[in-house]
Amino acid sequence: MQRLARMAARLPGVAQATSCFSEQGQPSLREALLDLRDRSFTSILIVPLVLPMEPGFMNWLTRSLKRWQTEAAGGWPPIRVTRDIAQERHFEPLLAALIEGAAMAPDIVPEKEKPAASLVPAQKRRVLVCEGGACNAAGADAIWGHLRNEQQRRKLRASGSGTMTAKSTCLGPCALAPVVQVFPEGTYYGGVTEAAIDRIVEEHLLGDRVVDEFAYHPTGRKQRLRDNTHSDPTGD
User: Which Gene3D superfamilies does the record associate with it (predicted)?
Assistant: First the structure.
């Protein structure tokens, strides 16, 4: 990734190029954008090098960009996003060149299979990040990436009761997207942002206290996604 960024930096009209990750990895896309914003560039261009690009990628990316701009208001230059790299006319010749050069690739020699063995995780907490349709559209991939980065940075597997994280299929309350569920309590969190993840890590995973500001409890009634200035999330 850094090599690609160095290549891009040498292109005409490019003042600076930074590699980053839309999911797990550092720097995250959000961190890179905030850094570029503070450097007062006249515009920012995002070039997604994602293969294959999921159909909903541009939808959640656009929604996440708008949310980040709202959360860190003021001073944002125009942001543009290039189209899918696989749709470019130069991609087919590149693919053909890779196939033509396959004769130079090393042969893969099968290794003797070893008996499989695994440790049973000792961690008591589980965090599920919903990857259902509504949550994906609301930017769940960015939330997942931030959680995984914090898991590594805060060493959550060995801190507190120990935490394991995983993506999940639909968790149920789609109108509260993006949704995260924390076990063993089974607490649902809705409208989750990076800031909400930071508080869930600090207060719930490490402090054993549910973050009521973002929590939604089973009431037997439908609940709407609330903004955090209102105390009654219920509705018919």
Answer: Glutaredoxin (3.40.30.10)
